[in-house]
Amino acid sequence: MDHTTITATSATLQALFEGTITNAPEQGLAGLPIELRSPRAVRLDGDGLGLSVWLYRVEAASDRRTVMSAPGAAQRGDGLALELHYLLTPFAATPEDEQTVLARVLETLRDDPVLAGDQLFGGLTGEVRLSLEALTLEESLRLFTALQEPYRAAVALLARPRPLDA
Fold first, then answer.
1. CATH class of the domain at 5-66+77-162
2. For the whole model, what pTM was predicted?
3. I need a labelling partner for 37 at 20 to 30 A (CA). Which of 9, 46, 53, 96 fits?
4. Residue 90: predicted pLDDT
C-alpha cells in the first residue's frame, strides 16, 4: 500500500459505477453522475442528482498490521492493509429511479466482487475485493444524522485493496 491507494480505490469504484450506471442505456440511469462526495454534498449541489460514493471510514485490516521496527518506521514487505468503508446513496429524479440505481449497484457488486487488471485506476495494482457491509438501522441513522441529512435507502460497501505482493 502506498499513499495513492485510497484515492485510486475511490477512482476505481467511480469508474466501475460509471460503466454500469452512467453509461447504461436505461432511462433513469443514463448520464447519472457518480460523485465521490457525501450524500449531503450531492443533494445540495446543482440539480441534486447522482450516486454518492462516499468514503466515510478507513481502518487497518484486522488480518494484517504494519509492524513498527523503530519510532515512525514501518517495515517493508508487511504493509498496512486497509479496509475502506463507503456509503452508496442514489439521488435520482423519482423514487423508482433511485431504486433502479440501488438495484444496479447491487448487481454490479454481485457480478464484480473482485476488481483487477484494467478495472483498476489511479495507478492501483493487485486487486480490490468488494463486499456488502451489513449496517444496522441504528448505524445507518447515525451516519445520516452526522451528515444532517434525512435517512435514505443506501448500500454500505467494504473495499479491500490488496497489492500484488500481499
1. alpha beta
2. 0.88
3. 96
4. 96
